[in-house]
Amino acid sequence: MPYKPLNQFNSRDLAAALKAGSLALEAGAFSHVIEGRGSKLVEFMQDVYRDYPVSLYPEDVTDNIVRVRAPNFIRRFIRPQILPDPGFEFPSVPMPASMSPLVLEMGLNLSVALKTMRFVSFHAGVVDGPDGAIIMSAESGGGKSTLTAALVEQGFRLLSDEFALLGLDEPTLNAYPRPISLKNESIDVVRGLAGEDWISQTVEGSPKGDIAYRRPRASDIADAHKTAKPKLILFPFFEEGLSPLAERLNPAEAIMRLIPASTNYSMLGEPAYRSLLQLVLDAPAYEVSYGTLEDSLKLVEDLYAEAGGNQ
Amino acid sequence: MHHLLEGAFALNTMNNIADSNDVLWMSEGDLYLEHVFEDTTLVYCKPSGDTHFLSFLPADILKLIEKKPMSISALHTHFLTEYEFSENDLPLSIMKDAITQLDEIGLAWPSAADAK
User: Do B51 and A274 lie within an 8 Å CB cutoff?
Assistant: First the structure.
């Protein structure tokens, strides 16, 4: 069956394909088969994945299968629980069935983080501008997703909020545009920038607090086959009250920070080293700290211009 | 318990090797990739798949023992002469530490002659 935007299918057919484990979703560099049950999951996909190409009964090979399933038979019915099953053993704490959006996103992230061999993958937000891409690698809570979402509002193309996917033969960035994961205070910040229609319903009380997702634009999904040339590497750090500061990093320092952020560096070995080395030689790297979103955008604007990009 | 003793013995043996000034140390350039950034060297070790930062001393030691196996005392003498360091600037213990570090990350090892 051919791929069509998800919003061209009705709820009943989507639910049936999800239950049968035959819904294939294309998101840039990856295609996933998704299996799961429940109206909450269907509603979430109809909202946040509405513009993604899907096939309900795919004939092509896909990259992986992600299941949103109950931890055991009893938990399908009594106080229902679910966990992400990316197709391999992974320790997961079961969550209430109402958190199926979060569990689906976790499952997709796990499958890409731990099964990708075509690219060097590392935890980062990536956007592409007129003169090249900006990579933002930060630990959870560092403000990466808020900054990524804010740059998208400024016209940058979303490559990914979660993974930088660097080619092994040449250091170009591949797109994997998925919904931007927003936590707690950042939900309202991005809602204010993007508008209510672009933000999913909030999943409340998750282990990471309240979570909502900023839906990618249709153009980001349609352009996901386009690679991008790295222009700037940022290691952002947000803390309320911090004065804006940018500190240039030696390329060796930059690579030593990217390696721990990579999910497959040690598995890929030498090609991953060569590719990351070329990346840090091509694109200047900065540690940027800031206390407000406005400060972070000004810093990025200045550094992007300095790196030779026009914002 | 046996394994613990074995591990302790291996560690002790390694320290003894690095303590010995007579052992010849060697390396092979084919086993790693390096890129020099100003005062530091980035090294990718092919057998382990690990990436390391080296300061100038271990990086220079690698270059030397790659050409021919050298003892710690010979390396020490070389650096004292080459860089006009005094014994205070570069005590022998620093040289031993550098060799121990290179040994631990798999970039230097005693030459086969010494292994016998």
Answer: no
Task: Using alpha carbons, select from A60, A59, A54 the residue that is nearest to residue A24.
Answer: A54
Give the whole-angstrom CA distance, residue A147 versus residue A169: 29
- The answer to whether A250 faces chain B, any CB pair under 8 Å, is yes
Please state, in angstroms and as integers, the Cα–Cα distance from residue A234 to each residue in A16, A39, A217, A277, following that order.
43, 39, 24, 16
Does the distance separating the beta carbons of A251 and B51 come in below 8 Å? no
Query: Predicted ipTM?
Result: 0.73
The whole-angstrom distance between B73's CA and the closest CA on chain A is: 31
Beta carbons of B40 and A274 less than 8 Å apart: no
Q: Does B39 touch chain A (CB under 8 A)?
A: no
Give the ranges where chain A is alpha helix by DSSP (H).
11-20, 39-48, 100-115, 144-153, 185-194, 218-222, 251-261, 265-268, 270-282, 293-306
Neighbouring CB atoms inside 10 A of A293's CB total: 19
Q: Is the pLDDT of residue B39 over 90?
A: no
Partners of residue A193 on adjacent β-strands: none
- What tokens appear for A102 in the block? 């979060």
Residues B78/B39, Cβ–Cβ less than 8 Å: no
Mean residue pLDDT across chain B: 83
Structure confidence by residue, pLDDT tens digits, A36-77: 999 999 999 999 999 999 999 888 888 999 999 999 989 988
H-helix or E-strand spanning residue A125: strand A125-129
DSSP-derived secondary structure for A202-240: PEEEETTEEEEEEPPPHHHHHTTT--B-EEEEEEEEE-T
**Residue B51: its chain A contacts at CB < 8 A?**
255-256, 259, 273
* Token representation of residue A57: 């009964």
Q: What is the pLDDT of residues A255-297, one digit of tens each?
A: 999 999 999 999 999 999 999 999 999 999 999 999 999 999 9
Residue A304: pLDDT band (50, 70, 90) is very high
Which secondary structure element, helix H or strand E, spans residue A30, and what is its range?
A: strand A30-35
The verdict on B49 touching A (C-beta cutoff 8 Å) is yes
Enumerate the residues of chain A whose CB falls inside 8 A of the CB of residue B33: 270, 273-274
CA A44/CA A49 separation, integer angstroms: 8
C-alpha gyration radius of chain A:
19
Instruction: Tell me, yes or no, if B33 comes closer than 8 A to chain A by beta carbon.
Output: yes
